[in-house]
Design goal:
Layout lengths: L1 H9 L2 H5 L7 E2 L10 E2 L1 H15 L1 E10 L6 E10 L4 E10 L6
Antiparallel strand pairs: 1-2, 3-4, 4-5
C-alpha cells in the first residue's frame, strides 16, 4: 500500500501499473464521471492525470490489516488537491493476490 501511495504521489505511471493486476478495478462513490476505473493502465493514467492537473497528493491516516494473515487491508486516507486548495477524506479496501510482493 505504501509503495502504491508513493507511486501515486510521484505520478509514476510504471510504478502504479506494477501495483495492480491487469484486470484491477478501482471503485468510487456514485456521481463521478468514467467510474469505475478498469485495468492497471487506466488506473495509473488517471492518477497521473490527477497529480499533473489537480496537484494531487495523498496521505495515509490509518492502516488496518486483516487478522491471521488474510490478504486484505483497509486504509483511511486524505487526498490533497493542492491545485484547487481542497481535500477529500475516505477509505479504501484492498484485496491482494497470493503472489503479491
Amino acid at each position: 500500500i505504501r509503495r502504491y501511495f508513493d507511486a501515486c504521489n510521484a505520478g509514476d505511471h510504471a510504478a502504479l501499473v506494477a501495483c495492480f493486476t491487469p484486470d484491477a478495478v478501482h471503485y468510487f462513490p456514485p456521481g463521478l464521471p468514467d467510474i469505475p476505473w478498469r485495468g492497471a493502465e487506466a488506473i495509473a493514467a488517471k492518477w497521473v492525470w490527477c497529480v499533473r492537473n489537480l496537484g494531487s497528493r495523498w496521505t495515509i491516516e490509518k492502516l488496518l490489516l486483516a487478522e491471521g494473515g488474510a490478504p486484505e487491508a483497509v486504509i483511511e486516507w486524505t487526498h490533497w488537491k493542492t491545485g484547487t486548495g481542497t481535500a477529500q477524506r475516505g477509505d479504501e479496501w484492498y484485496v491482494f493476490n497470493a503472489d503479491c510482493t
